[in-house]
Amino acid sequence: MIDAIDLTRELIRKPSVTPADAGAMDVVERTLAGLGFACRRMKFGEIENLYARYGTASPNLCFAGHTDVVPVGNTAAWSQDAFSAEVVDGVLIGRGAVDMKSAIAAFAAAAAAALAAGQGKGSLSFLITGDEEGVALDGTRKVVEALAVEGEVIDHCVVGEPTSSETFGDMVKVGRRGSINAEIEVTGLQGHVAYPHRAANPTPVLIRALAALQARVLDEGYPEFQPSNLEVTWIEVPNTATNVIPGVARARLNIRFNPNHTGAELAAWIAAEAKAAAEGTSCQAAVTPQISGEAFLTAPGPFTEVVAAAVREVTGRAPELSTTGGTSDARFIRALCPVVELGLVGKTMHQVDERAPVAEIRMLQAVYERLIQRYFEAFAA
Predict the structure, then answer these.
(1) How far apart are CA 15 and CA 1, in angstroms?
(2) Nearest to 298 by CA among 307, 286, 290, 289
(3) pLDDT tens digit string along 91-131?
(4) 173-157-313 Cα angle (round to 5)
(5) DSSP labels for 313-337?
(6) Under 8 Å CB-to-CB from 229, ≥6 apart: which residues?
(7) Pick from 214, 242, 248: which is nearest to 229 by CA?
(8) What is the DSSP string of 115-130?
(9) For 4-176+295-379, which CATH class?
(10) 4-176+295-379 and 178-293 agree in CATH topology
């Protein structure tokens, strides 16, 4: 058997700030191999990934998560060393306590209990990456692509992100909005402010483009989704002189979008507005988009009911099935199978003194145990 708290503390003590692994994946591999999982390390670039599977029969229920964490920030502001994993008054403090080393440990402990009870009627698997908090290019995305080429079948997946909002178990994520980042660069001609006819100021062009983009109401929402929103996140005009018309102006923006849109459609719209803003001037506008994920939804059905019932039976509350929040690696896994996200309360993730009550980590393990049991009852032949 596995103690979820001990395993969480062992993982936190590996300072795996993206892209560093610091031995965290070794801990996961050793734990799962000890349970009889066939473990495969899948390294892409400098990122450590792991796919582990117990059994060969269908259905295959996968747990996905990440061992990497965000930087500590101001170390002096922490009440404990961020990687010492101290338990104070029943609360585990440390970077990764919520997001999401505790969930990896809880599911490993739940898997151990399920296997000991003979509940493995199909297969259990783990897809663990070290590149969720970073650019996410060499993590779950690459593993999913490799598994798809190999023909590996994952029937359903649970991601251990901290999805609970106020109280543990009050929310399960069944979808996410898509995300696109775009940089707009307008190139003009630098010159003296007293002689504007000899220059081409890119700043008004950029302002017009941003104004046009922000003036559009993207939508009023979509069933199960909140409205799409565009936010300008950065503007730069690299010019330190007061008497110089700048030669370039840049901006970055992000759009979180629901299924009313696709990333490609939005990228084309941004490019068209930038081009229109530059028409009639001597400036050139270029747009560089990066689509990090499309919107997706795991529709209510037998799988979401299994997950919701497990939460309800352990916590006594029916979770809200939500699509709110940011993005996660679920956006890549959806290419293989239906996916939901279920984890701890996320209030302290990425904060100083990130923390999780020990009792809630054990409750998460209990939910995962019940989920595994219910899953095989529902889906195993």
Answers:
(1) 25
(2) 307
(3) 999 999 999 999 999 999 999 999 999 876 899 999 999 99
(4) 60
(5) HHHSSPPEEE--S---THHHHTTTS
(6) 218, 255, 256
(7) 214
(8) HHTT--SSEEEEEEES
(9) alpha beta
(10) no
DSSP 256-278: EE-TT--HHHHHHHHHHHHHHHH
Which residue, chain included where needed, has tokens 């979008």? 257
Residue located via tokens 């440390």: 94
Catalytic residues: 68, 132
Position 49 pLDDT exceeds 70: yes
CA-based nearest residue to 330, from 357, 295, 366: 295
Question: How many CB atoms lie under 10 A from the CB of residue 17?
Answer: 18
What distance in Å separates the CA atoms of residue 28 and residue 34, rounded to the nearest whole number?
Answer: 10
Residue partners of 118: CB distance under 8 A and separation at least 6? none
Cα 257 to Cα 174, 249, 251, 274, 321, distances in angstroms? 15, 26, 19, 20, 18
Q: Tokens for 131?
A: 């590149």
Q: Where are the domains of the chain?
A: 4-176+295-379, 178-293
C-beta atoms surrounding 255 within 10 Å: 24
381 has pLDDT over 80: no
Residue 252 tokens, joined: 């970055």
Q: Are 182 and 287 in contact (CB under 8 A)?
A: yes
Distance, in Å, from the CA atom of 34 to the CA atom of 4, rounded to the nearest integer, reads 15
- Structure pTM? 0.89
Question: Which residue carries 């009792």 as its tokens?
Answer: 359
Question: Are 9 and 85 a contacting pair, CB within 8 Å?
Answer: yes
Could you please state the CATH topology (level 3) that the domain comprising 178-293 is classified under: Alpha-Beta Plaits (3.30.70)
Pull the structure tokens for residue 157: 């997946």
Residue ranges of alpha helices (H) inside 138-294 are 140-150, 203-215, 263-278
Which residues face 241 on adjacent strands? Answer: none
pLDDT digits (tens, 9 = 90+) for 246-300: 999 999 999 999 999 999 999 999 999 999 999 999 999 999 999 988 999 999 9
Q: What is the DSSP letter of 220?
A: S
Residue 126 identity (one-letter amino acid): F
By C-alpha distance, which of 177, 117, 131 is closest to 297?
177
